[in-house]
Design brief:
Layout (H helix, E strand, L loop, with lengths): L14 E6 L6 H12 L5 E7 L4 H9 L7 E5 L5 H6 L2 H13 L5 E5 L16 E7 L12 H5 L2 E5 L4 H4 L3 H11 L5 E3 L5 H19 L14 E4 L4 E6 L8 E6 L2
Parallel strand pairs: 1-4, 1-5, 2-3, 2-4, 5-6, 6-7
Antiparallel strand pairs: 8-9, 9-10
Helix pairs in contact: 1-2, 1-8
């Protein structure tokens, strides 16, 4: 059994941790791993984001890692990043409801729906954020950079046990990630590797300790890069998140 970490001072609220990354990188599995590693010593709640379903929430409930009532789903009704970056109201309300219903919680994990490589959480929503890549996406992805890869509090290179099957050198991918992040924290993770799970657990407990001591400051990785949204008519708009007046703007353009 891992040594239990105790904190002498109760915070005003739980640490809110965002988990973002492209579709299929294993965000839900990572959250399940966190719950298994820490549920015996921390009170945890989870909020998932999907466009029109609660599939990620149902996956976590079926995994049996938490009381199902501690796992709540937000249906964003739009691109997932809008609810973690542009208008975070639905997620803030879900977090507050969860903390009220199960007070006191130590940790609320908010999972973004699968999005592109630039997705980031607003610091108004989360205190810290993890960006997740996986080896199956290619060994070169980490060095391509972007706000999430470069400046999230932690970058996780996930599914390292699959590396031999997809021809990825994990050590090189981690080195590239570290260079892209100017030395910020990187964890190479496989849920089947206890040492990597322990590294993730230690990182999270360290953030929680600093948060409870009042020493952790939420960082803004910066706005997402502009990206194009197509529609059913073959047109669409360029979506940018750098307008300080309301957090985003839409410019209409034709698809090519």
């Amino acid at each position: 059994m891992p040594e239990t970490t105790t904190f002498p001072h109760a915070p005003a609220r739980a640490l809110r941790l965002g988990v973002a990354g492209p579709v299929g990188v294993g965000k839900s599995s990572l959250i399940a791993t966190v719950c298994r590693a820490l549920a015996d010593e921390l009170a945890i709640g989870v909020i998932t984001n999907d466009i029109y379903t609660d599939e990620d929430a149902r996956f976590l409930r079926s995994a049996g890692v938490l009381d199902p009532e501690r796992i709540r789903a937000v249906e964003t009704g739009a691109c997932p990043h809008t609810a973690i970056r542009d208008d975070v109201t639905a997620n803030l309300l879900a977090a507050e409801d969860l903390e009220r219903d199960f007070a006191p919680l130590d940790l609320v994990v908010i999972e973004s729906g699968g999005d592109n490589l630039t997705a980031t959480f607003s610091p108004a929503l989360v205190d810290a954020q993890i960006f997740v890549l996986d080896v199956a996406g290619g060994g070169d992805v980490a060095r391509k950079g972007g706000p999430g890869i470069g400046r999230a509090d932690l970058l996780v290179v996930n599914k390292t046990d699959l590396a031999p099957y997809v021809g990825v050198d994990v050590a090189r991918m981690v080195a590239d990630a570290s260079a892209a992040r100017d030395g910020r924290d990187v964890v190479a993770l496989s849920r089947t590797d206890p040492a990597s799970v322990a590294a993730l657990r230690a990182w999270l407990l360290g953030v929680l300790e600093r948060f409870r001591a009042g020493a952790h400051v939420a960082q803004d990785p910066g706005p997402m890069a502009p990206h194009f949204h197509a529609d059913e008519e073959g047109q669409g708009y360029l979506h940018s998140h750098d307008d300080p007046s309301h957090g985003h703007e839409h410019e209409h353009a034709h698809a090519h």
